[in-house]
Every structure is written in structure tokens, then in C-alpha cells.
């Protein structure tokens, strides 16, 4: 219809970041979402696909607009039942010279893994995916490495077969390295990586077999670092809590729990509110929702203690 044509024209011309991004969002909402009120024909879908493909401008380097266009393409190819054709394009973009193209490829991989590809499709293409991901994890640009991290965790989370996921267990140390590197350079991106890692730990805890010591080491250092925001430290602690719930035996056998994790939690317990007036006005409900270090530690210690069991003791 006329509305769709107008939105496509704005997207095609890339007049401004705000206009292009908003047009992408509106096009997806009104024409491509499952609950969209407007009906769209196969011919219109193909016209949309062609227009958006023609509008891709990696040289401009505007990641916000590119991401919105990537979301549109993933929706369109899925509606056309051609997601596997999009995968072939992603392979090309993942090996391009410009970083924006490589990052775009990883972002769309993440969307496809999260939403549009079945577990069987992900499994069938696992070797091809991991070749691309492993190369992206070595990329010279941190933005591409972070995008690859998120794509890999989405890929793992999208696979139902535990045995398939465990075939890629060797990549986990590299993922931890990227978390550390990202937190040092951009804490916001690092927090996103920690949250992705928590989801992965909940869905596939066995992926940490053989790497539990390194995981606890990294997470404990993040928890202890007072330079990080409270939310970042709390997100790190949630990863350990997720692992203790899913795989308590692995934590019991890990020396770093005694030498690093529990000391980190003990330190966080001491980081209490120093202002007596603020402390006096804090309600129990406020404390239960708080992410300050002391309340985070209280919560995590309670959950881990319950998971590890009463026979677990700490040496003095």
C-alpha cells in the first residue's frame, strides 16, 4: 500500500538516522509482525526485500540503521521461507573487508538463531556457523568480536540437543576472554555479554565442563571490582548462581570457589550503606529488589548454599 511505499522510500533514501530507524520499526510493526493488521502479498514482500537490500550501505557505518534493516530482512526472509538463503548472504558479509559488514552479519545471525531458525536448521549448519563464528572471535575490531559473542550464545541457546552444543565446548575460554576484554573497554557491552552468558548457563550448563575454574575466576574478579556498576557485578554473580542451580557438583569440585568466589561474596557483604539516614528509610521490599553489593551477596549466598547442600564446608 501507499504507507508501505512511503516507509520504504524513506528507508531507501536514508535521509537521517532517526527517520530511517523509525521507518524500519513502523514497517516491521504494521506489515511484518505476526499480529500485524495489514496483509501483505508475496509480491509486496519481494519488493520490500529488494528495496532494503539495495539500501544497505556499510560504508556509511551507521550501525543503528543497519541493525533495524537486519531485523527487517530476517523477518522478510522468514516469511518467504527463505531463511537459508539469507544465511548464504551472511557468510559473504562475515568475510567482507569493512567491519560494519562483518558486525552486521553477526547481528543478523543472532536474530536468526533467536527467532527464525529451528533447532534442526541450526544443527544442520553447525559446522559452517562455527567456522564463521570462530573467525569473528579473532576479528581485529572489538565491536565485531562482541557481536560474534552474542551470535554464538544465541546459536547455542537455539539448539535443543545438548550433545550438539557440547561439540563446541572448546570455544568457551575464548568467550570468557572476550567478556573480560569488553568489560575493560565498554562496560555497557560487557554487561550485555554477561547477561547472554547467564542465559547460556541456564540452558546449557554442561558447556562449562572443563572450564568451570576459569569461569569462576573471571566472574569472581568482576564481582570484586568496585569500579564496575552494581548491576554489572550483580549480573556476574547471577551466572554463578545459575551454574550452582544447574550443576552444583561442578562448583563443589572447583578450588576457585573457596579461593576466589566466596572471598568475593564476603567482600560484597561488607559494602553496606554508610549513610544512617538512608539505611533507616530502606524497607525490606527495597532490599529484596536492590542490586547493591551487600544485598546481591546475601541473595547469592542463600541460593548457592541451598544448591551446594549442607555437607559442603569451607576450610578455615
Automatic annotation (TrEMBL):
Subcellular localization, as worded in the UniProt entry: Cytoplasm; Nucleus
IPO4/5-like TPR repeats domain sequence ranges: 84-217
Domain of life: Eukaryota
InterPro entries (alphabetical): ARM-like (IPR011989), ARM-type_fold (IPR016024), Importin_beta (IPR040122), Importin_rep_4 (IPR041653), TPR_IPO4/5 (IPR057672)
Gene3D superfamilies: Leucine-rich Repeat Variant
Record's keyword annotation contains Calcium: no
UniProt entry tagged with the keyword Protein transport: yes
Organism: Strombidinopsis acuminata
GO process terms (BP): protein import into nucleus
Source species taxonomy: Eukaryota, Sar, Alveolata, Ciliophora, Intramacronucleata
Parts forming coiled coils: none
Listed name of the protein: IPO4/5-like TPR repeats domain-containing protein
Amino acid at each position: 500500500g501507499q504507507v508501505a511505499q512511503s516507509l520504504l522510500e524513506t528507508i531507501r533514501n536514508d535521509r537521517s538516522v532517526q527517520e530511517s530507524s523509525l521507518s524500519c520499526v513502523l514497517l516491521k510493526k504494521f506489515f511484518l509482525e505476526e499480529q500485524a493488521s495489514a496483509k501483505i502479498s508475496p509480491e509486496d514482500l519481494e519488493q520490500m526485500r529488494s528495496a532494503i537490500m539495495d539500501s544497505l550501505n556499510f560504508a556509511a557505518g551507521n550501525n543503528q540503521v543497519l541493525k533495524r534493516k537486519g531485523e527487517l530482512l530476517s523477518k522478510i526472509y522468514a516469511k518467504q521461507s527463505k531463511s537459508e538463503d539469507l544465511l548464504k548472504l551472511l557468510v559473504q558479509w562475515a568475510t567482507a573487508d569493512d567491519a560494519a559488514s562483518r558486525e552486521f552479519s553477526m547481528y543478523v545471525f543472532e536474530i536468526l538463531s533467536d527467532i527464525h531458525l529451528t533447532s534442526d536448521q541450526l544443527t544442520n549448519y553447525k559446522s559452517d556457523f562455527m567456522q564463521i563464528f570462530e573467525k569473528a572471535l579473532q576479528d581485529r575490531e572489538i565491536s565485531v568480536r562482541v557481536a560474534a559473542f552474542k551470535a554464538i550464545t544465541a546459536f547455542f541457546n537455539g539448539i535443543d540437543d545438548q550433545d550438539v552444543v557440547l561439540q563446541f565446548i572448546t570455544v568457551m575460554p575464548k568467550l570468557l576472554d572476550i567478556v573480560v576484554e569488553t568489560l575493560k573497554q565498554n562496560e555497557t557491552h560487557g554487561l550485555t555479554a554477561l547477561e547472554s552468558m547467564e542465559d547460556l548457563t541456564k540452558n546449557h550448563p554442561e558447556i562449562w565442563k572443563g572450564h568451570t575454574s576459569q569461569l569462576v575466576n573471571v566472574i569472581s574478579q568482576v564481582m570484586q571490582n568496585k569500579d564496575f556498576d552494581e548491576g554489572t557485578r550483580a549480573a556476574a554473580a547471577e551466572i554463578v548462581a545459575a551454574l550452582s542451580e544447574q550443576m552444583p557438583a561442578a562448583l563443589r569440585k572447583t578450588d576457585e570457589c573457596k579461593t576466589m568466589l566466596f572471598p568475593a561474596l564476603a567482600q560484597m557483604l561488607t559494602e553496606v550503606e554508610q549513610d544512617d539516614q538512608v539505611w533507616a528509610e530502606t524497607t525490606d521490599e527495597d532490599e529484596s529488589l536492590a542490586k547493591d553489593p551487600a544485598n546481591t551477596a546475601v541473595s547469592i549466598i542463600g541460593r548457592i548454599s541451598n544448591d551446594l547442600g549442607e555437607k559442603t564446608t569451607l576450610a578455615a
